[in-house]
Design a protein that fits this description.
This protein is α/β, with parallel strands linked by helices. It contains 8 helices and 5 strands, in the order E-H-H-E-H-E-H-H-E-H-E-H-H.
Amino acid sequence: MTLRFAILGDSIAYGQGAATRQDTVAARLSADLTAHGVANEPRVFAVPGAQSRDLPAQARPAVSWRPDVVLIIIGANDLTRFVPPAQAVAPLTAAVRTLRTAGSEVVVAPAPDLSVVPWVPAEMRALVQAGSRILHDAQTRAVLAEGAHVADIGMSSAAGFAGDLSLFSADRFHPSSAGYAVIAAALAPAIRQAASVAAG
């Protein structure tokens, strides 16, 4: 059996900033599954710039493909556009429910801690971190209630990015290839767990 692995979400899910397609989250996680004996076919439905409101539109074609495991990375663009947490969480919840109803195991990586982004002024970092945490926690509660898995990289990986500018690409916002390696390593255990559940 070849596991169908769908990736939904924003530019991080898409891989913007990576030097090559092999460096993206999708490719790295696919390679990790293969290394653990799980034959898989990844397909990226993510769109750079996507907000949570765009997830239902991504979920529809994904469901038609009948994925076994779905990864959703979302939240950064909601934060930069000051989308209220409740307004961001509602379409995420709807997308997860649609995917779960279709039989997919879903892994959600909630909002990252944007306070580590280099262009955030030092005097604003505490406020940005607090806002990131509020959305992150609201997303986490909502998707767990829908039976999804949560890969908590948004806050836990922040320290590494804060201390190493090489993890950012030239735009100082999106991850570099090295940054994607850090993110994929943090996501991999949850993806392997979801794949195990999907395999029955």
